[in-house]
Amino acid sequence: MDLGRHPATSGHARPAEDACSVLWDRDGTSAFGTAAGALFFVVLEQSGPWGRVAAQDSHLGAELGAELDSRCAVAGGRFMLIRRPSGHPDGVGPRRVLVAHAGVRADDAWMVSADVARPGDLLELDWSALARGHRALVRASLPGAENAPPHLLICTNGRRDVCCAVRGRPLAAAAARLDPGRVWEVSHTGGHRFAPTAVLLPWGQGFARLDETMAGWVLDASDTGHVPRELLGGTHDRGRSPLPTAAQCAESHVRALTEETRLGALWALPSDDVEEADPVIEVAHEDGRSWRVRVWRRPTGGRRPESCGKAVIAVQELVGEVIDGPDLPAR
Predict the structure, then answer these.
(1) CB 13 within 8 A of CB 302
(2) What does the alpha-carbon distance between residue 241 and residue 238 come to, in Å, rounded to a whole number?
């Protein structure tokens, strides 16, 4: 890859040679197990500028943004702001809200959307029902809510990291031309070093190092609950947000080995030792097969900044190894 012309920025802005995402592109460090944790998402349209902590530093208002962010976090979810991938003038009138339950098993994921006249109405959401995945109760607490198709949210907040603006904004604009109603700029997905990053709702499936072609694949595949075969593996698959990091890695590792693209076909089973060093995670398939996967952090020998402007760190990546289970296709 010509690092000066990353696929998502060709014809647009050029990232600096020492930008965090350029350095991590060069190393090819795996993105397995790096999806930001969240059982659910509350995502509110908010045009205009965003600050580094967008929920508190936007025209939404610091007090309301902090309260919504806190309520989401306490219940195990994530609050984010979105805006249309175009100019960012302050909007007037109703704004879109997406409320998604990611599902520990992907087949349990769902999402509803509504237009709200007053963002403060979101404080009336049934937070307990949302954490439990009770769609009917959540809809009852959000007037006008309707079931929503999958949406792709692409991180573009340059106040968090310049890579997200330089690489994310051109990608979001290009992807929105492919499917205008289902692509948004989003305030923060984490993992700036893997920019352009995106999260696919409702599943909380994180992606790294996307380009316009890949975004189109994601949108097409998501219609039927799949991810693109071309994006399996540690280069692009960050994992699913409702799982602990080791379980994310194990599930993604088996998905890549089996070339299983249907999100609901695989799931990492709960494990008592998931937070232990080198945990062993069981991953099940809907056809009855299962694999035990040992997960550990492997030093790469490199030192890179996790975000632009931050100090360098010793780079590690999560690695999975199947230690028991049925035979897998040769690769």
Answers:
(1) no
(2) 9
